[in-house]
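User: Hi! I'm working on a homework problem where we have to compare a predicted structure to a textbook description. Could you give me the structure for the chain below?
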Amino acid sequence: MPIPPRFLAISAAFIAAAAWAHHGWSAYDAAKPLKIEAPLAQVQYRNPHVEAAVDYQGARWNVVLAPVSRMEARGLPASALPVGKVVAVEGFPRTDGTHELKAERITIDSKTIELR
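Assistant: Happy to help. Predicted structure tokens:
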């Protein structure tokens, strides 16, 4: 039995939405590593990636961390990231100038955790 065109259109829409929702890492500049040390201004501990916000050089930066399961497996439960906690985050900024950092590692209380 052939696949109805309506089913194909709906499937394509779901695939496009999923691809848009989970951005690729090609949007980040691996040639420009950046280290930000600042207190956490906001934390969203959820999938697909934990995200945090820090104020750095007069701008609010969004920091994309690892998925929840990886964060917990590496010793970073939600309770380890309270707002106000000073962290050092190393990663790569977006290529389009948006104040966003793809974190490769985070240091909290002298403990460095690799997020890859």
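For your comparison, note the following. Strands lie at 34-44, 51-56, 59-64, 86-93, 100-108, 111-114. The chain has one domain: 24-114. Good luck with the assignment!
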